Structures are given as C-alpha cells and as structure tokens.
Amino acid sequence: MATSIPLSQTILVAFLIVTSCIWMFPQVAVATSKHTSVTRHYKFNIRLKNVTRLCHTKSMVTVNGKFPGPRVVAREGDRIIVKVVNHAPNNISIHWHGIRQLQSGWADGPAYITQCPIQTGQSYVYNFTVVGQRGTLLWHAHFQWLRATVYGPLIILPRHNASYPFAKPYKEVTIMLGNLSFISSNLIESFCHAILLINMIKKIWQIIITTGEWFNADPEAIINQSLQTGNGPNVSEAYTFNGLPGPTYNCSAKDTYKLKVKPGKAYMLRLINTALNDELFFSIANHTLTVVEADATYVKPFETNILVIAPGQTTNVLLKTNPNPPNASFFMLARPYFTGMGTFDNSTVAAILEYETPSQDNSFRNRTLFKPSLPAINATNFVANFSSKFRSLANAQFPANVPQTVDKRFFFTVSLGANPCPKNQTCQGPNGTKFAAAVNNVSFALPSTALLQSYFFAKSKGVYTADFPQFPLHPFNYTGTPPNNTFVSNGTKALVIPFNTSVELVLQDTSILGAESHPLHLHGYNVYVVGQGFGNFDPKNDPAKFNLIDPVERNTVGVPSGGWVAIRFLADNPGVWFMHCHFDVHLSWGLRMAWIVLDGELPNQKLPPPPSDLPKC
Ligand SMILES: *[C@@H]1O[C@H](CO)[C@@H](O)[C@H](O)[C@H]1NC(C)=O
Ligand SMILES: *[C@@H]1O[C@H](CO)[C@@H](O)[C@H](O)[C@H]1NC(C)=O
Ligand SMILES: *[C@@H]1O[C@H](CO)[C@@H](O)[C@H](O)[C@H]1NC(C)=O
Ligand SMILES: *[C@@H]1O[C@H](CO)[C@@H](O)[C@H](O)[C@H]1NC(C)=O
Ligand SMILES: *[C@@H]1O[C@H](CO)[C@@H](O)[C@H](O)[C@H]1NC(C)=O
Ligand SMILES: *[C@@H]1O[C@H](CO)[C@@H](O)[C@H](O)[C@H]1NC(C)=O
Ligand SMILES: *[C@@H]1O[C@H](CO)[C@@H](O)[C@H](O)[C@H]1NC(C)=O
Ligand SMILES: *[C@@H]1O[C@H](CO)[C@@H](O)[C@H](O)[C@H]1NC(C)=O
Ligand SMILES: *[C@@H]1O[C@H](CO)[C@@H](O)[C@H](O)[C@H]1NC(C)=O
Ligand SMILES: *[C@@H]1O[C@H](CO)[C@@H](O)[C@H](O)[C@H]1NC(C)=O
Ligand SMILES: *[C@@H]1O[C@H](CO)[C@@H](O)[C@H](O)[C@H]1NC(C)=O
Ligand SMILES: *[C@@H]1O[C@H](CO)[C@@H](O)[C@H](O)[C@H]1NC(C)=O
Ligand SMILES: [Cu+2]
C-alpha cells in the first residue's frame, strides 16, 4: 500500500494525464510504478484496414490498423491491462496465448468458453498478471478464423535485475520501459511524446519473427463455406514472415522481411508461429541456432540448423553471427510439415539475413545469396527427433515441478471424422459427408453463451453437460485400419476435476481419415511432456519410459502423426479451460473440449466473480 501523502490532487491530475495519454496513443504501453511490479496499459482498437499483399488488396480485421498487430511487452510479475474496443462489424475476443491466468480466467478470451464475444461498438478490459513466466508468447483473436490477421507478440522480460540463464544476447541489452514517477508537467501532448520515444527505443531492441498465413480471400468466408459444404477449406496463398510473403511469391519481392545483423554478435530471435493451419520447418542458411526457450519456459540449450514450430508455439533461439562479415546474404526459409490426406499450402516463404557492412565498401555490393535445405514435407521422424530434444532447465532457480504421482489418468483420442450430410443438401466432404473432428469421438459444439459464466452461476442446464468421456467409449486399433463408421458424436461436454488434481493425460492420434499431427493447446496451464511415441500408447510398458526428471514444459504440444504423447499437470488454477487443436480448421470442425477445475478451499484457490464489463451474449 502507498503511504498517504497529502498530494491527492497532484495524484489525480497525474492520473488524468496518464489515462488520457493511454487513450490518445493506443499502441503505447505506459508503466506505472508500484513496487517492483508495474501495471502496463494498452488499448486495442479493433478496426478494418485495407492491406495489400501479392498485388491483392483486402479489407481485414486488425488491432490499431496494424498487421501483424502491436507487441505487448511486460516484465515477469507485471499486471497487463488491455482495453479492447471493437469498431469492426465482426464479433471478436482476444486470447493471451500461454498466459497462466491464475485466478483470472475471465481474461483468458476464447469466445463462448470464458466470455461472450465483444460485439460491434462494445469494449472489454482484459486484466491479468504475469506470474512465474518469462519469455515469448503471443496474443490472438479467439473467434472463428479472425486470428489470421489479428495476432501479435506478447513478450515477457525477466524481472529487473534478473538475468537470462545464458549469456546476455546483443540487442537485448537496453530495454527501457516507461516509469511515470517523474510526472510534473501538465502538457499532455509532450508528455505522451516522451512516452512514445521510450516505446520506440524498446522496439529497436527486440527481434521478433512471426510466421503467418496470407489468404487472398476473407478467412471468415473460407471457413464458413467449408462448414457449409463439408469440404476442406481453401488453403492460404502464401506464408509470411512478420506479415511479409517475400520473394518466392508473385508480386511480392518488395514485401520481404530483412533482418540486418552485425558480425560477431549473439542475437536472440523470438520465433512465433501464428499460421492458422500449418506446422512449419524453419532454417537460416549457413547459421546454427541455439534453442534456449519454448513457450515462455527455459530449456536446456541445444543446437540445430532446422526448427519445427507448430501454430501457437514459440521458440527463442540464439543466432551467433560470423565474426567476419561474409560477402553473402542468407535466406531464412519456412515451409510446412504435413502428413494428412487433405490439401495444404505447400509453398515456401523466404526472408533475408543480411550483414551490415561499411556502406563505402564496394566489395560487399554483389553478394551471393545462400539457401538452407529443409526436410521433406512429411519428415515425421525428423519432427519426432526434434521435439525429443526439448528438456526443461530443471535447476534450482527454474525447477521442473512435474507431478511425480498421479490422481487421475485420462486417455483422449484426437482425430478427424465426419458428420452425415443434411437430407436436402449435397456435401463435398469424404464420401459425400461433412468433415468433422473430435476428442474421444465427441465433436464439441460451441454453446450460445459462455461456459465460464454458466459454470460460475451454476446455470449449466442447456449449456453444457459434465460427462466428457475419460476414455474412448469404443476402443479400436487407433493407428491400424480405421473403423468403417467414421461419424463423430456431437455435444458440449466438459470434464470436471477437483482443485489440485494431479493429472496424467495421454493424447492418441488416430488413422481416421489419415494420421496427422495435431498441436494441442491447453488454456490456463503449462503441461509437462513426459513421453511420446508412434503407434498405440501401451499402458503397460510406455509409462516406465516417462521422463519425470526434466520434461519440457509447454502450452502447445504436438501429438505425433500416427502416435501419442503423454502430459502431466497439476490442476491448481480454478476455472473453465479450453483444450483444442491449434490448427483452426480442426478447431472449427470440433477438435476441442473444456476442463472445469473446481475451486479449492482457501480464498486464494477460488475463481473471483466476473468483472462488471464482461460481454453478454
Ligand atoms: C478499403 O478500400 C475500399 C475500396 O477502395 C474502400 O471502399 C474502403 O473504404 C476501404 N476501407 C478502409 C477501412 O479503408
Ligand atoms: C484489475 O484487477 C485488479 C485486481 O482484481 C483490480 O484491483 C483493478 O482495479 C483492475 N483494473 C482494471 C482497470 O480493471
Ligand atoms: C554456406 O553453405 C554452403 C553449403 O553448405 C557452402 O557452400 C558455402 O560456402 C557457405 N557460405 C558461407 C558464406 O558460409
Ligand atoms: C505443391 O502442390 C501443387 C499442387 O498439388 C503441386 O503442383 C506442386 O508441385 C507442389 N509444389 C511443391 C513445391 O511441392
Ligand atoms: C555479380 O556477380 C555475378 C556473378 O558472380 C556477375 O555475373 C554479375 O555481373 C555481378 N554483378 C555486379 C553488379 O557486379
Ligand atoms: C513422403 O512423401 C514422399 C513423396 O510423396 C514418399 O515417397 C515417402 O514415402 C513419404 N515418406 C513418409 C515417411 O511418409
Ligand atoms: C433444408 O430444408 C429445410 C426445411 O425445408 C430448410 O429449412 C433448410 O434451409 C434446407 N437447407 C438447405 C441447405 O437447403
Ligand atoms: C468411402 O467409401 C468407400 C466405399 O465404402 C470406402 O472404401 C472408402 O474408404 C471411403 N472413404 C472415406 C474417405 O471414408
Ligand atoms: C494395429 O494395427 C497395426 C497396423 O496395422 C498393427 O501393426 C498392429 O498389430 C495392430 N494392433 C493390434 C493390437 O491389433
Ligand atoms: C468394413 O467394410 C469392409 C469393406 O466394405 C468390410 O469388409 C468389413 O467387414 C467392414 N467392417 C465392419 C467392422 O463392418
Ligand atoms: C450439434 O448439436 C447442436 C445442438 O446440440 C446443433 O445445433 C448442431 O447443429 C449440431 N452440429 C452438428 C454438426 O450436428
Ligand atoms: C455476435 O455475438 C452475439 C452474441 O453471441 C450473437 O448473438 C451474434 O449473432 C453474433 N454476430 C455475429 C455476426 O457473429
Ligand atoms: Cu488438429
């Protein structure tokens, strides 16, 4: 608590300046000092913006007219407050992907799960603290396919005076975040400009690389048509680095992301896969990368030339540049990993890593451009090998708190499937059906009101049932010949578990309509990945091989194509938590479910009531 100083009027004026400043320059973060943690305010104006790529102009939903969206930066321990105002004709909600949201489930964001969407003309203030996390995450829209254009980085810096568990990278040294204790002037404008300057300094010192997908058509129209006809949705026209498709596409060379580096330095790149439907291989020609962090948790560093990143996953890597500037530039490439039966965008996106050289030195004018080689599109063994390299740091400062004992074991199949074609329609899905997807053969139907409200106010009737199957009701040889009947069941089912349940969950891929890798994302938690394998999970022999020492901790876990993955987590965060495939196509087809974690006994183990501005359906 602040000591009471007879300065309440000054404080009020200061408060007014700060708030008007925040609303004047929506993209600016303003930090107000409060002990070592601060509160960071952002304003997201959701609005339409015309954006041109590949010689194609389209109107898209954006945050503050930016594509990709603005970065949100905070330190571990800070409070983040984002006022979202919806000026677009679409419904929307924003998800802070990977943020634990300890007892702040109302701020998590998935539409019809933790909140009703923010409708046109409405606003909602997301209010949460960052506890025990540091690294790279992302934020994105969580309504239909709006995240195709509505996404951005969420950077959590270590606490003041805390350092990275690796040598401090160049270009991460000077990070100035505003501190408003110096307010004295009432010249709002100049003050705001000072804040803007601070923000710009901060921007220069971060290297963030988002990979995304560009659709010439409106992604909302694409998924709506797919859900109508039952067919797979049209695929993207291009992949992007920081929103730019680059030189491998027609009419796009001018939209190329260039990363300029100095020789002999170690840079930290924050890689974020924001693509809608594709896991991506990533590589930089002639440069080895050291992986140091995944999903905002530190990992034991390892070197690699090629990375695989699933949508929703983030990876921090160190890039050591050559001591002597080479007379060459280097392509950064990304292209998909895919094993399914459907169509997909098989193109490759390029960006350029360029060494800064003295401008008067002509010998660097004509540089060779080197290309990295990437694995085959279906290189499943490479992916399995790569994901097995991730290990928690598991030291005294950053322990791996993997549950050693288990209270509840669950086994979920994740699979594609079908729904029958409505009587008076012809459908273009498999054998004239409609594509669907399911967890334990339940294709999750979104309710018309938010689950969290229904749960909190004990009004679940007609909204959801608490009977999500803990095991498949009809076991089969999951990775063998698929069953003839591929129809899924349909329902809004939740799995209810008591506070502090120690959970082990095996996620099993199936061969129904083609074995495929599925990046499963759990909201409100990080999970420890204790085991993975191909074929069917063997409950007798596989658990003996689990890693309970230093398993990686992630928020998005790849279920191997034709295989399984085992995760553990302690259910210490009360609320309703969405779990779903982070391919939006599978999400839309129903590969999603909800956990309800009950309140604990103590006051700090209970979900507080909703904020007063929570949107209504
Ligand atoms: C986008 O372009 C169209 C056609 O030129 C125009 O009618 C519309 O107002 C523009 N929208 C925005 C948000 O600028
Ligand atoms: C954010 O939440 C905290 C804790 O519940 C509360 O004290 C604060 O007033 C909230 N701020 C806003 C702007 O809603
Ligand atoms: C880059 O790698 C290629 C192929 O491995 C090699 O031929 C070339 O000499 C390397 N160039 C530089 C500048 O390192
Ligand atoms: C991508 O797919 C198209 C259509 O199936 C095919 O014609 C093309 O050769 C593929 N390109 C690559 C690089 O694999
Ligand atoms: C650049 O080098 C290539 C071959 O190495 C040569 O053909 C070309 O003429 C050079 N261009 C310039 C502008 O020097
Ligand atoms: C990958 O695709 C190639 C070409 O389509 C095929 O020959 C090969 O068998 C596939 N590999 C795997 C592991 O499925
Ligand atoms: C199917 O028929 C019903 C009843 O006649 C009608 O309400 C519905 O719109 C029709 N659906 C389609 C896709 O034509
Ligand atoms: C379609 O039906 C045929 C014949 O019943 C069957 O062999 C085939 O596997 C089915 N295809 C799919 C994708 O379900
Ligand atoms: C399941 O199917 C696979 C692949 O066809 C086969 O190798 C395996 O023996 C089958 N397992 C059982 C238990 O039938
Ligand atoms: C599945 O379909 C095949 C071919 O139509 C048939 O031979 C087989 O008996 C069917 N299996 C079951 C379990 O119905
Ligand atoms: C699933 O069930 C809901 C109502 O329970 C219904 O509105 C929806 O159309 C069903 N979806 C499918 C694909 O059958
Ligand atoms: C927006 O959300 C509200 C509340 O769920 C719903 O009634 C309305 O139909 C939605 N509008 C659109 C365009 O999706
Ligand atoms: Cu999936």
TrEMBL record:
One of its GO terms (molecular function) is copper ion binding. Binds 4 Cu cations per monomer. It comes from the Eukaryota. GO terms for biological process: lignin catabolic process. GO terms for cellular component: apoplast. Its cofactor is Cu cation. Its main location: secreted. The keyword Glycoprotein applies. It is found in: Secreted, Extracellular space, Apoplast. Pfam families: Cu-oxidase, Cu-oxidase_2, Cu-oxidase_3. Keywords: Apoplast, Copper, Glycoprotein, Lignin degradation, Metal-binding, Oxidoreductase, Repeat, Secreted, Signal. Its EC number is 1.10.3.2. Residues 1-31 form the signal peptide. The keyword Transport does not apply. Coiled coil: none annotated. It catalyses: 4 hydroquinone + O2 = 4 benzosemiquinone + 2 H2O. Residues 47-159, 207-356, 479-599 form the Plastocyanin-like domain. It is an enzyme of class 1 (oxidoreductase). Belongs to the multicopper oxidase family. Lignin degradation and detoxification of lignin-derived products. This is Laccase. It comes from Citrus clementina (Clementine). The lineage of its organism: Eukaryota, Viridiplantae, Streptophyta, Embryophyta, Tracheophyta.
